[in-house]
Amino acid sequence: MALFSRRKSVVGLDIGSSSVKAVELSRSGQSLSITAMGTATIETPEAVGAAIQEALREAGIRTRRCVSAVSGRSVIIRQVPMVKMAQSELKQAVEYEADKYIPFDVSEVQLDAQPLGDQGSDEGQMRVLLVAAKRSLIEEHVALLQSVGLHPLAVDVDVFALGNAFELRNLALGIDDQEVRTLVDIGASKTNINIMRGNTSCFQREIYVAGNDLTEAVAKRFGEDPRDVEKMKLDPGGALESMQDAMLPVLEDIGSEIRLSFDYFENQYDQTVKEVYLSGGTASFPGVDTMLTQVFGLPARLWDPTEGLLMGRQELAGLGGSNSGLAVAMGLASRIRSV
Ligand SMILES: Nc1ncnc2c1ncn2[C@@H]1O[C@H](COP(=O)(O)OP(=O)(O)OP(=O)(O)O)[C@@H](O)[C@H]1O
Ligand SMILES: [Mg+2]
User: Fold this and answer.
1) What is the pLDDT at residue 278?
2) Could you give the residue range(s) of every CATH 3.30.1490.300 domain in the chain?
3) pTM score, two decimals?
4) Measured distance CA(150)–CA(133) in Å, rounded
5) Mean pLDDT for the chain?
6) Which of 64, 248, 254, 264 has its CA 20 to 30 A from that of 95?
7) Residue range 42-56, pLDDT digits in tens
8) Ligand with an atom nearest the CA of residue 322
9) Mapping DSSP to helix (H, G, I), strand (E, B) and coil, where does residue 18 land?
10) From the CA of 145, how far away is ligand 1's center (Å)?
11) pLDDT band at residue 319, thresholds of 50, 70 and 90?
């Protein structure tokens, strides 16, 4: 019994390779609201801590409790077949078999395993989602957060946070169906793919082609310094069409990699992907949605992870833009539902 209900807050902190995104979610009973949002550019790899502090300051966040994520090549996500067994036995069995699937020494990784739905697996077998991250990566990450005075509640993985953000948005909008939608988050150094059926994540992948490669392609075409192209991307003016033209081949590369994931999913689940939901900084470059719609032959559109949620402070509603760059941060903060 609670005699009074205290508001709890958590910061979702998405520390990307180019920028830090922070979203504070607050919960009072069952009611969730967004109480702060902020971003900051990471100027140099040494300045990540400073960028975290700047994003928190810009947003006016005082909560120290945060959830953030690791990602990249030191994080392995695999769907592996295993003999059916109880959840209690799973962890040990996975530890025993993990070296078949992980290219690192198993003693150096933190493992997590979850049984997936039975669809697509044979009799007596189940598919298990295996996540392994190098322990040193997690330790460095936690040390970074603590060095700026934060208390990490959990360390997640970008691509799962993306799915959690989508689930939260579906809950907020009352969307409750089993349609297949693909989430594609295009950042600076990587593109995250999460194929969702309703609110269930069915397939996850990271591709190391993204905004930096678009920048390179434009820089090459124009004979410009990539740092100047980064500025042009924010205000293309009359150069828009030729920039898009230079970007198209890279988007086609990203698209054909993503198509491979569609093919795999469609074979496994006997269901087709209908729509693509775009997020991440690169997705907001004008025309990226239209170009990807052409590349996929499927509607690809930006989505807003704050849609349907209460804005706990009035000025947040007026921030403008689609907030689609905040998808991962929103998904991280959505952990507040279970604290
Ligand atoms: N408004 C914008 N218009 C066009 N491009 C943008 C805009 N904002 C950011 N970008 C581009 O998006 C990329 C950064 O996106 P984002 O912040 O999602 O990446 P990140 O999370 O830091 O990187 P990663 O997830 O790959 O580690 C950069 O390439 C940048 O040029
Ligand atoms: Mg990112």
Assistant:
1) 98
2) 75-134
3) 0.95
4) 21
5) 92
6) 264
7) 999 999 999 999 999
8) 1
9) coil
10) 22
11) low
**315: pLDDT strictly greater than 80:** no
Indicate which ligand has the atom closest to the C-alpha of 280. 1
Ligand 2 centre to CA of 252 (Å) is: 20
Position 6 scores a pLDDT of 74
Percent of the chain whose pLDDT exceeds 70? 95
Domain 8-71+137-175+304-338 has CATH 3.40.50.12780: no
Query: Cα–Cα distance between 19 and 51 in angstroms, integer?
Result: 8
Decide: residue 203, CB within 10 A, 0-12 exposed, 13-18 middle, 19+ buried.
Answer: buried
CA dihedral for 253, 258, 262, 263, sign (positive or negative): positive
Distance CA 90, CA 127 (A): 11
**Within a 10 A sphere around the Cβ of 19, how many other Cβ atoms?**
17
Q: 246: CA distance to ligand 1 center in Å?
A: 17
Which two tokens mark 25?
Answer: 């979610």
Q: What average pLDDT does this structure show over 38-67? A: 96
Please tell me the CATH code under which domain 205-300 is placed. Answer: 3.30.420.40
pLDDT at residue 1 above 50? no
Residue 321 has pLDDT above 50, yes or no: yes
For residues 123-127, give the mean pLDDT.
Answer: 85
Phi, psi for 52 (deg, rounded to 5): -60, -45
| Location of each CATH 3.30.420.40 domain in the chain | 8-71+137-175+304-338, 205-300
CB–CB of 82/133 below 8 Å?
no
- Greatest alpha-carbon span in the chain: 67
Into which CATH architecture does domain 75-134 fall? 2-Layer Sandwich (3.30)
Q: Return the SS3 of 326.
A: helix
Best mutation site among 13, 14, 15, 19 for ligand 1 pocket (most ligand atoms within 8 Å of CB):
19
